[in-house]
Amino acid sequence: MSSPTRRTVIATGSALGGALLTGGLPAQASAADRTGSASDPWRAVLDDADLVWQRMPATWYEGPYLGNGFLGSGIYAEPGREQAAVRFNVQHSEVQDHRPEYGSLFGLARLPIGYFTLEPVGTITAVDWRLGLHDAELTGALTTDRGRLAIRALVHTSRSLLAVEVAPSEGERDFRWVFHPADAISPRADFKPLPDGYRGNPPAEVGDHDGVSASVQPLLSGGQHVTAWRETDRGGRRTLYVHVAHSYPKSTALRRALSTIRGGSLLPYDALAATHRAWWHAYYRRSFLSLPDARIQRFYWIQLYKVASAARRDAPVMATSGPWLESTPWPNTWWNLNVQLEYWLIHGSNHLELDAVTRALGEFRDNLSNEMAPAYRADSLGIPRTTDPHLINGAAGTLTGYGVGIPGQDPPTPEVGNLTWALHNVWLSYRHTMDESILRDVLYPLLRKAVTYYLHFLELGPDGKLHLPATFSPEYGGDTRDCNYDLMLLTWGCRTLLESADLLGVKDELAPRWREVLAKRVPYPTDENGFMIGADIPFAKSHRHYSHLLSVYPLYELTGRTADERALIEKSLAHWVGFEGALQGYTFTGAASMSALLGKGEDALKYLGELMTRFIQPNTMYKESGPVIETPLSASQSLHDMVCQSWGGVVRVFPALPAAWADLTVHDFRTQGAFLLSAVRRGGVTSWVRLVSEAGAPCVVRHSVPGAIEVRDRRGRRLHYETVGEGTVRIALRRGESALITAKGNRPDFTIAPVAPNGQAPRWGLPA
Fold first, then answer.
1. What are the residues facing 709 on neighbouring strands?
2. Which long-range contacts (CB under 8 A, 24 or more apart) does 549-552 make?
3. Contacts of 81 (CB under 8 A, 6+ apart)
4. Angle between helices 630-643 and 601-614 (to 10 degrees)
5. Is the pTM of this model over 0.90?
6. What's residue 35's pLDDT?
């Protein structure tokens, strides 16, 4: 197969997601060495990242997982019956209670549904499973002392069906499936006392409905959720089909669930899998990343699988455990860190189709108004620490769910910055797409009211500065005046509102007040150790959150532009992570991203290594008193921050790579300004950089190509550029145009392919 011409590669449209690049390009030898999928770089990295099990997983943290943002299934041995049964959990992100009088953590909590057990005839003696990322399917076999059960399983991407096909050997023909309904009670009941008057919902009613089995769970609030299933036998291959429906306040879920199981959804497994696989194949091809650390590369592609299994734009915003509900003290959506971290990786990986945060905040904004104290509902908005998928918290309290606080008052705990931080995610979605409707319809109107809430409480002190009364910094403990969490978010909010008003052509009557805040706001409280929690509380104990450092990351207000500013960031970071005891996984993802901001690739890699060694579970899940998923997903963003940063209107290519990552390939990485970046590094040197402009936004790029450069358009013609700093150029690109940057006179290899690994690494899962 001949190599492509330079002109062909330059002209390849990014809208094709790299597919044309793949078709005519010879993959490097490393791709074949790693997986044997030499002709397709996406297939190569995905096959290489498959999770394998050659030992039986015993918990949620060890087993395979399938999902589509709504329906989810985690798979592991039935506790206490490890050699007799395998559990296939059935959970759904829309299934919740509807009793707001008991708050978001009990009365509005996600409710467990139940699980199936696959029960062989014989005793399980061996397991050999593979979670194939490329097809998003579990395949493999169970071996027993009576025979063998070959298994294929998926949660269909759009039909919301769990399908499990089992092909038994002769001795296992009489294996069976058994459904076990769960108690419909908040999972928090396993960890905290029940609120007064709260009781679980009545037991589920399991029965046959003209050949379809169903478990009907009535709810005390009205409504129901229903699990319906049916097994078919085609040529000795038995396939279990499962569907979950939820309805409130009407009891229509049974009719819908039965209709789905009786209808045309029950295609033969191969036919069902065909459309499922097609969606996933297209999904992955929206971007590409390969680096020489095999363990981290595999981890990264697993997170892309995980996030699309847990999130969709029209699905509920991810709860702390995604669609895979287990026993947890956090059975709902958490807004003071978890949601923000869960969705960061969708931007750089070019997967805005998963952005439920922007959709939910826009759709349910009226519910946010109702969560405010009555005196502030007319002009202010906030989001409680915890909500259900409709952004409702219900009765607030330390037991049932924390509401929006009031600065200077406790109770309720004055945690007030969560909406502003959530809107930073919306701002990221705007900046990565330059979609003005996001700015106009969601970000600007909601951020205006979130900032207005702060304005009610700002006070002019004798020093001539504007101060905040005592608020709460998640989750340090204690209230403090001039809390850095809130001052940093208020500063970002005012600056973003002024910029947004200018972009939208809005003359806002509040603009003078926003400018006054920026001019007169009290400096962020600091001491000899760096940033304090607030004016009254130094940072003096181990703390997992980086709430007091948001102006550094992810807001990028303080970036080390001066020597003093850099020293303050370095001192604050070292002091924060220097206290052992309460540090958790996302402590190290935050530290990695802050190190990447400072260009310290070795430090960033060290922190990711700490995360992998100390916290990440065999299947790349994460636990912290209960199952949570934000930390592994945010680790992918830390990796993004090492590979590309685009804050402040500058695209920075390979800003914080460790020396060991001498080779790296990235393709169609989405940046702020709505650029799609492709770049290749070979032998520690950036070989070439390509940017495709989707919106015609100003293009400034710190390209990292050494020496003199040349810039060409998609037809190979020279493009004018302006040097605006060392290694930084400004290029005028209109919508749809692209620029290719190379060393002057160089004609590099433009192949998009996996890079060779630096060494061997075990697969994720439970390999032998």
1. 743
2. 549/484, 549/573, 549/576, 549/590, 549/594, 550/421, 550/484, 550/485, 550/488, 550/489, 550/492, 551/484, 551/488, 551/491, 551/492, 551/524, 552/594, 552/597
3. 117
4. 160
5. yes
6. 38
> What is the rounded distance in angstroms from the CA atom of residue 582 to the CA atom of residue 645?
29
Pairing of strands 765-766, 51-53: parallel
> Which pair of structure tokens corresponds to residue 84?
């007799």
- The one-character DSSP state at 523 is P
Average pLDDT, the chain: 93
Find, among 129, 116, 131, 112, the residue nearest to 66 by Cα: 131
Residue of 171, 351, 320, 316 lying closest to 246 (CA atoms): 316
Taking CA atoms, 198 is separated from 99, 399, 693, in Å, by 9, 12, 55
> Binning pLDDT at 50, 70 and 90, where does residue 3 land?
very low
- Phi and psi (nearest 5°) for 607? -65, -40
Dist. CA 672–CA 347, nearest whole Å: 9
Which residue in 534, 653, 633, 545 sits closest to 591, CA to CA? 545
Q: Which of 474, 334, 393 lies closest to 100 in space, CA to CA?
A: 393
Characterize the bridge pairing of strands 709-712 and 651-653. unpaired
- Which residue, chain included where needed, has tokens 């009786």? 262
Element (H, E) at 765: strand 765-766
Kindly report, residue by residue over 220-279, the tens digit of the pLDDT: 999 999 999 999 999 999 999 999 999 999 999 999 999 999 976 689 999 999 999 999
pLDDT surpassing 50 at residue 128: yes
Tokens at 421, concatenated: 């931080």
CA torsion angle 657 662 665 671 (round to 10): 20
Residue 509: pLDDT band (50, 70, 90) is very high
**Residue 145 contacts residue 122 (beta carbons within 8 Å):** yes
Show the tokens assigned to 143.
């071996």
Orientation of helix 294-310 relative to helix 601-614, angle to 10°: 70
Token readout for 305 is 């699988």
DSSP structure string for 360-400:
HHHHTHHHHHHTS-GGGTTT-----SEE-TTS---S-BTTT
User: 26: closest CA among 752, 551, 764?
Assistant: 752
Helix, strand, coil % over all residues of the chain, rounded to 5: 30, 25, 45
d(CA 579, CA 544): 10
d(CA 328, CA 331): 6
Q: Which pLDDT score, from 0 to 100, does residue 81 have?
A: 96
Question: By CB neighbour count within 10 A (0-12 exposed, 13-18 middle, 19+ buried), where does 378 fall?
Answer: exposed
Confidence band of 472 (pLDDT split at 50, 70, 90): very high
Separation CA 255–CA 471 (nearest Å): 49
According to DSSP, residue 182 is labeled: P
Measured in degrees and rounded to the nearest 5, phi and psi for residue 561 equal -65, -30
- The CA radius of gyration of the chain, in Å to the nearest whole number, is 26
Q: How many other C-beta atoms are found inside a 10 Å radius of the C-beta of residue 80?
A: 7
How far, rounded to the nearest angstrom, does the alpha carbon of residue 321 sit from its chain's CA centroid? 11
Place of tokens 């041995």: 77
* Residue 413 DSSP class: P
In tens, the pLDDT along 344-365 reads 999 999 999 999 999 999 999 9
